[in-house]
């Protein structure tokens, strides 16, 4: 794991950390650590204040990105192996999906990403060699995502091999769930225009049933999750014949 990921994890755990302590913790100069912090601040993860660092609480997606960041990054770095150069894919909104989108954009050339996430588009806008297609709709400010029927209306202009999605929970009876009806409907609309739907989610979602049904188990081709998944979660995926990649 790179130093920036470890910085986010440390700040997430301790809430506020002095810059001098970060330099000591990672055995680098304060000049080097400040360069890392400038980059993380530009990405929206952290804020610097009077010699200390705190998490950026400006919006929902950034808050969720900092939670279980290490696990989400591992998932993103593994899932990127499914993508080839010059491929067109859909990526739905979500914290793990945002990290995945960055991995795709930086590791592959000639990529086209179709998404309803303004958060993803904003953070990838400066990366050369990636084409971004933003699905329009009603703007949901907290998650920086477009929702509503226009999302599927625009998605209907495309058909891709792979849609990558995040979820808020997993329920043994209801399948994959979301905590927001509008985002759930947008994700299902995108799913109807993809050959495969692939879930990217950290293992904590297996203990969270969620409130809104998003996908049935048979809607999903594979799930990528982290190695803290318990035996019940593994067994649930096996019972539903879901390819499960654990990182």
Automatic annotation (TrEMBL):
Keyword Transcription belongs to the record: yes
HTH deoR-type domain location: 1-55
Alphabetized SUPFAM superfamilies for the sequence: NagB/RpiA/CoA transferase-like (SSF100950), Winged helix' DNA-binding domain (SSF46785)
Key words, A-Z: DNA-binding, Repressor, Transcription, Transcription regulation
Gene3D superfamilies: 3.40.50.1360, Winged helix-like DNA-binding domain superfamily/Winged helix DNA-binding domain (1.10.10.10)
Leader sequence segment: none
InterPro entries listed in its UniProt record: Carb_Metab_HTH_regulators (IPR050313), DeoR-like_C (IPR014036), DeoR_HTH (IPR001034), NagB/RpiA_transferase-like (IPR037171), Tscrpt_reg_HTH_DeoR_CS (IPR018356), WH-like_DNA-bd_sf (IPR036388), WH_DNA-bd_sf (IPR036390)
Pfam families the UniProt entry points to: DeoRC (PF00455), HTH_DeoR (PF08220)
GO molecular function, one term: DNA binding
Task of the protein: Repressor of the lactose catabolism operon. Galactose-6-phosphate is the inducer.
Record-given protein name: Lactose phosphotransferase system repressor
Native source species: Secundilactobacillus oryzae JCM 18671
